[in-house]
Description:
Layout: E1 8-10, H1 12-18, E2 21-22, E3 27-29, E4 36-42, E5 56-58, E6 61-69, H2 70-85, E7 95-101, E8 106-112, H3 117-120, H4 123-128, H5 132-135, E9 139-146, E10 149-150, E11 157-159, H6 193-206, H7 220-223
Parallel strand pairs: 4-7
Antiparallel strand pairs: 1-8, 2-3, 3-4, 5-6, 6-9, 7-8, 10-11
The structure holds zinc ion.
Residues 151, 153-154, 156, 158, 168, 170-171, 173 line the site of zinc ion.
Amino acid sequence: xxWWDGTxxxxxxxxxxxxxxxxxxxxxxxxxxxxxxxxxRFTDGDYRFSxxxxxxxxxxxxxxYHVFTGDDARAARKFINRFIATGHGINGNEIDLIRFEADSxxxxxxxxxxxxxxxxxxxxxxxxxxxxxxxxNDVFVLPLKRYLYHCPVCQRRTLMYRGMYDICVQCGxxxxxxxxxxxxxxxxxxxxxxxxxxxxxxxxxxxxxxxWFTTPCISPKSLHLETNVQ
Length: 230
Ligand SMILES: [Zn+2]
């Protein structure tokens, strides 16, 4: 299972307001070019953008990446090179990764992105990971950061690391790395994963929109385009 059931559903209008410049069908930018969105038009098993396969293990981080081909490759390469040259790409707030679900037509932001600048020049190495038929085309591979880990309580992909005391934005669990359902953990008081989940589900059942961290991902304020002050 490569995908989680995204929490932050957005509409075409919200995407267009936030990222009005379409570089390719998958790559959108803010007016000033300081923010971008990658839209994954995901179909099951699509190797061109998959959280599961192919991926690249580097320094024990699992990266995933987006593959542009043909004219898209040239346009994306040009834009992304400029994006990086102007100092962007390593701050997760500058890239949204958006999953487009063809069946329902819904879009979900599933995490903030981050370009792995250190290996973006390793295009040849990245191409080696692709199926043979893809390598003969004009291809540009955009490597992104590792994907998020499942929270042991609510199973959402909300944790950047395991065992680093990340707090799950969905349920509020503080992760000390344990997966033992019945072990008491230091940071969560007397709660175990099991008892915390029971508590969380009670709250969730009485309020379907409940989320521990309450700042919404998409809000009128966040739709307002911000210009980076250098
Ligand atoms: Zn959680």
